[in-house]
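User: I've been trying to design a sequence by hand for this structure and keep getting stuck. Would you show me what you'd pick, starting by listing the structure so we're on the same page?

Assistant: Good idea, let's start from the same input. This is the structure you sent:
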């Protein structure tokens, strides 16, 4: 009987020979991981057995490269993967850990109940705490703060975090709250924004979270950006990033000139209505943007200039108000449906 496929999608993987990072199609099954150069490839580029493996999440071996997790096989071979956003990483890691546990116990894979467990007072789940902190109604409020001729968008102060933890009874006092906040910083859930908070984070082997009103932080993958006072053109460009992140993830995109298809990370924002796309293997500078106000997005069954064997299924098209056509491919039919619905909503409501 063929092993059950549990999860599949795009991740960025570090090469074992050249040490370069490349986007690959990953399939997680009951006994291990297969990764492919392209989704349409018939044979995998490599296989990673998970029996006897260990998993480290997050893995902070690569400095500024965030959202990385590490798999060490039973034969002590290390494999590094990077997700496109926090929630995606947690989904992959949760399923991989479950596979490893099932293999150790000789059990059939089955997802645990999604019913929320009771948090024990002596054991804090930082992932759950991070989710609660990001709650739009009851979490830590993200603000636009000014400091030393710079404007920090989507951020908050160290004191705000400490006081939120105490007010929500996550910590009994400031010392305990500071310990939790430092844990969030060390695990990569919270990132330093200004010079002072960065100095604290780099002050020793373990990062130090600062309980100060002038120490600035932001949630990982929250849309944070910093701007200085410069030309009107720069300010106008930064306007594109002011909207809240509605959806994000990796899709295949067709190039306009060469008509080739490449994996790109997409971030959809609501107001103003933009979707920016990035090279998932590199930094945070976008390769381009699509202004969605007045655009039309529909599912399509084929794409002009695309070879059938190279690209097929789960395709959709964005036509901007300037009549520029963008062709994209989602990993699954359900993901295509979600992206179309999200883009349609933003194109109508965002400016």
């Amino acid at each position: 009987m063929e092993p059950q496929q549990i999860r599949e999608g795009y991740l960025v993987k570090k090469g074992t020979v050249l040490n370069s990072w490349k986007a690959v199609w990953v399939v997680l099954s009951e006994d291990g991981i297969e990764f492919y150069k392209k989704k349409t490839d018939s044979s995998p580029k490599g296989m990673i057995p998970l029996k006897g493996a260990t998993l480290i999440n997050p893995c902070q071996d690569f400095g500024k490269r965030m959202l990385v997790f590490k798999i060490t096989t039973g034969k002590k071979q290390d494999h590094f993967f990077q997700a496109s956003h926090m929630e995606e990483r947690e989904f992959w890691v949760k399923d991989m850990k479950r596979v490893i546990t099932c293999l150790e116990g000789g059990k059939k894979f089955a997802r645990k109940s999604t019913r929320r467990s009771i948090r024990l007072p002596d054991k804090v789940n930082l992932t759950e705490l991070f989710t609660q902190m990001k709650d739009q109604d009851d979490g830590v409020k993200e603000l636009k703060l000014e400091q030393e001729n710079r404007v920090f968008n989507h951020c908050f102060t160290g004191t705000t975090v400490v006081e939120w933890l105490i007010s929500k009874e996550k910590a009994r006092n400031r010392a305990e709250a500071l310990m939790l906040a430092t844990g969030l910083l060390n695990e990569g859930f919270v990132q330093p924004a200004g010079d002072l908070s960065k100095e604290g984070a780099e002050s020793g082997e373990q990062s130090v979270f600062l309980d100060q009103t002038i120490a600035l932080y932001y949630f990982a993958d929250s849309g944070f950006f910093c701007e200085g006072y410069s030309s009107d053109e720069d300010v106008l460009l930064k306007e594109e990033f002011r909207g809240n992140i509605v959806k994000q993830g990796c899709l295949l995109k067709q190039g306009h000139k060469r008509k080739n298809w490449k994996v790109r990370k997409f971030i959809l924002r609501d107001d103003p209505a933009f979707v920016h796309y990035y090279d998932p293997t590199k930094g945070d500078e976008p390769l381009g943007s699509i202004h969605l106000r007045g655009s039309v997005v529909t599912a399509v069954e084929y794409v002009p200039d695309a070879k059938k064997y190279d690209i097929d299924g789960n395709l959709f098209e964005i036509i901007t108000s300037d009549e520029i056509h963008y062709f994209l491919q989602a990993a699954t039919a359900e993901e295509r449906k979600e992206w179309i619905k999200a883009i349609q909503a933003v194109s109508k409501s965002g400016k």
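That's my pick for every position. To get oriented when you compare it with your attempt: The two ends are 53 Å apart (CA to CA). The mean pLDDT is 84.
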